[in-house]
């Protein structure tokens, strides 16, 4: 089975709105945050699902990357 590769355009479709799952990318990995209560509606502390958030999680998040280990990985992220 091949792993799904997302670019920004594809990732943006998974914004947690209108029944879509909520995905975020961090350091080249795409995570499904749909099951995280804090991400309901595709928003979490001003951040939006469907985006690449490496700088946010490394520079602004109080929990850092440790929460990523609990999330399902749905693919890889590559810039356009």
UniProtKB/TrEMBL annotation:
Coiled-coil portions: none
SMART domains membership: Cyt-b5
Cytochrome b5 heme-binding domain: residues covered: 6-78
Signal sequence range: none
Family matches, as Gene3D superfamilies: Cytochrome b5-like heme/steroid binding domain
Protein name: Cytochrome b5 heme-binding domain-containing protein
């Amino acid at each position: 089975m091949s792993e799904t590769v997302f670019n920004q355009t594809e990732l943006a479709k998974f914004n947690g709105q209108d029944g879509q799952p909520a995905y975020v990318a961090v350091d080249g990995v795409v995570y499904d945050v749909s099951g995280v209560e804090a991400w309901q509606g595709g928003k979490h502390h001003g951040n939006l699902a469907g985006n690449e958030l490496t700088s946010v999680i490394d520079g602004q998040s109080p929990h850092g990357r440790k929460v990523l280990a609990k999330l399902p990985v749905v693919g890889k992220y590559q810039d356009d």
